[in-house]
Design a protein that fits this description.
- This protein has six helices and 16 strands.
- By secondary structure, it is α+β, with helices and mostly antiparallel strands.
- The relative contact order is 0.17.
- A hairpin with a 2-residue loop joins strand 15 and strand 16.
- The protein has three domains: 86 residues, Pseudouridine synthase, CATH 3.30.2350.10; 130 residues, 2-Layer Sandwich (Pseudouridine synthase); 62 residues, Archaeosine Trna-guanine Transglycosylase, Chain: A, domain 4.
Amino acid sequence: MNGIVVINKPPGLTSHDVVNRVRRILGQRSVGHLGTLDPSATGVLPIVVGNLTRLAQFYAHSEKTYEGVIRFGFATDTYDADGEPTTPHQVVNIDGEQMRALATQFEGRIEQMPPPFSAKKIAGVPAYKLSRKKLEVVLKPVQIEIKEFKILETTRDQVTFRAHVASGTYIRSVAHDMGAKLGCGAHLASLRRTAVAEFAIEEAHSLPTLETAMQQGIVEPLFIHPRKLVPQLPSVTANEQSAALIRNGRAVNLPEMSRAPLVKVFYGQRDLIAIATRIAGTLFHAGIVFTGES
């Protein structure tokens, strides 16, 4: 079984927890994910199964879209609602115009300090492990890009937002930094990821839905159509002879293709058999071969 299924991750599970559940549901050992979500966060978690786990390299720097709520009045050590308060509670009364103006300061390329409770490594040790032991965590700011940060709604002490960000951005840090700028403290109250690369919340499925589909023998319709994967690469359909050569690691001519340096090679509509690299002209060599049927 090879494919990608988008799971709507529930709160309380780590991304690794979801991978383990999908392994059990599908009876597959080779399962991974395309982009970690914090345990408290929900939403889009693309799960790769079987030979298509080799596509993960094309999603290492995917853009992501989030919706969430930031609560003002106190900061926490984890920068979210699961942490312990690190500043005194303050009564706040948010001004919508002030929030929208503040949000513009976080758009574009900026430097951001990762949270102390994060997977960033210090001398090979994840920062969160040091933080849990109450050890000193010294992190360096990194450059990130926030393509859009829009305030959707405000209440007395909370704002609802939508953010479209480049890879490596911590929304928790955005919340923490906003509170620091206002001098009242803030933390991320809730977070829902609505998109990763080409994968959107509208095509996400719950774990119970996946399990039911597997029991009924109709799980394949839940998988993303292979032609939609890695959309930045054009697709080409190989004939039987070319497909056999590609599966055996041989170079082939794909005359119908444009001058693209990399292409997805299919046999039929759904069988993604390779990612091929142009050698010269119409001659391609399969750098990644996916054995079996998708």
